[in-house]
Design goal:
The structure is a single chain. This protein is of the alpha+beta class and 97 residues long. It has a domain at 55-86. Helix content is 34%, strand content 10%. The protein has a two-stranded antiparallel ribbon. Strand 1 (58-62) and strand 2 (69-73) form a beta hairpin. It is flat. The mean pLDDT is 76.
C-alpha cells in the first residue's frame, strides 16, 4: 500500500536521502514528521487557566463535544457523582465483593 505524501513536512525517507542514505527499493513511504500545533491561547488566557487549575475548589473538564471547557465547583461535582452512584437504575450493589 502506498500512502499519499502529505504537506506536513519532510518524510524521514526524504531526510535520509538528503543525508546520502541508500534507498532500499521499498515502495512504502514513511509517515511525515508531526509537529506540535501552535498554541492559540493568548498569554492572559493561559495565565488565567493556570490560576484556575491550581484552585482546589474548581474542577476543569473537557466538554463532551467540541473544544469547550466546563468549570465546576468541586462540591457540586462530588454531589453529582454521588447522585449517579446512588441511582439504582444506573448501578446496583454487588452481592459479594
Amino acid at each position: 500500500m502506498i500512502l499519499p505524501q502529505r504537506k506536513a513536512g519532510p518524510c524521514k525517507r526524504d531526510v535520509e536521502k538528503k543525508k546520502g542514505t541508500e534507498n532500499t527499493g521499498s515502495n512504502l513511504r514513511l509517515a511525515p514528521v508531526v509537529t506540535k500545533p501552535k498554541d492559540n491561547l493568548p498569554n492572559t488566557g493561559r495565565n488565567a487557566l493556570k490560576i484556575l487549575q491550581e484552585d482546589s475548589n474548581i474542577n476543569l473538564e473537557k466538554a463532551d463535544k467540541g473544544t469547550q471547557t466546563v468549570v465546576l465547583n468541586t462540591k457540586d461535582k462530588i454531589l453529582e457523582g454521588q447522585i449517579q452512584v446512588d441511582n439504582l437504575g444506573n448501578y446496583k450493589p454487588l452481592e459479594r465483593p
